Here is the input.
Amino acid sequence: MLKKLLLTTTAAAVAFSAANAFEINGRGASFPAPVYKEWAAAYNKATGNRVNYTASGSGDGIKSIEKRLVDFVGSDKPLKPKTLRKHKLYMFPAIVGSIVLAYNLPGVEDNQLKLSEKAIAAIFSGKAKYWDDAVIAEPNAGLKLPHEPINVCVRADGSGTTFNFTYYLSKIDPADFKPKKKFNWKANVVGGKGNQGVTANIQQTKYSIGYIEYSYKLSSGLPAATVENREHKFVAPTVQSFQDAAKYASWDKKDDFYAVIAYPKGATSYPMVAPSFILLDEEKKEANDKVAAFYDWAFKNGADIAAKLGYVALPKATVDEIRAYWSGKGITPAK
Here is the structure.
């Protein structure tokens, strides 16, 4: 009798949970998509709530939230407070990722290729046209570089990854680069949609190099370059070097957390790091509470998942600021 009662009670609890589960839809940046999807799967298992996220690019995401097509949007390009007010949007950071220079160079292993700031600027400006160009060869003594044209793989769509990468390029070569979501490259480029498209193009194109988020490098097995940082030290892309860079991030909830953190200080800092942001519609109180519930759960439970994929979870002080920001905007994570 007791066993039957327990089974009945459990079944009723499951049914109640299923009946009260919610579903939300988001789209936008491909940069954080791998971690958002793993967080969503774990969240669904823990709560029964479903979070759907489509990696369509930051540009598409921003347009989608401005048109009120989805519940939330991911964007690696932060919007300035004035733009947020104009479109009645809220914004907060969710994760920090990194941009790596992945390559397809037969015989050159992971982290073997060293790229100076001059070499990176020369490759992406089109000034260095062959792999054995002197500016690339200089820090790579002993590495046999082929006399083959450099195929530069870039984003074809409006992209927060491109914005952050060109922001970094503008710091090392301001004459040739300005921060843009969609850049008019002068190099010999191969365009791809999303980080996934650029990754596929690098895999399929010999003698190529391109910029992708680190988790795509991990899942694809592509090698990536060791690069010169702001302190003129060569640093390999690792979770530790990303963490060393991320600690220099400065956030302020009064400015809706607007920040671009590429090109940080620090001898051990990796130079191409970027936060990814969530955009919400001010008018969608119920949806915003559900989105906040998901990210609140991820902040509490998702750090290990983030680290496994090569992302850097936000520090507790930043998460506390985000929760205070939500409260100030009348957002209460749904139960």
In short: The chain is about 40% helix and 20% strand.
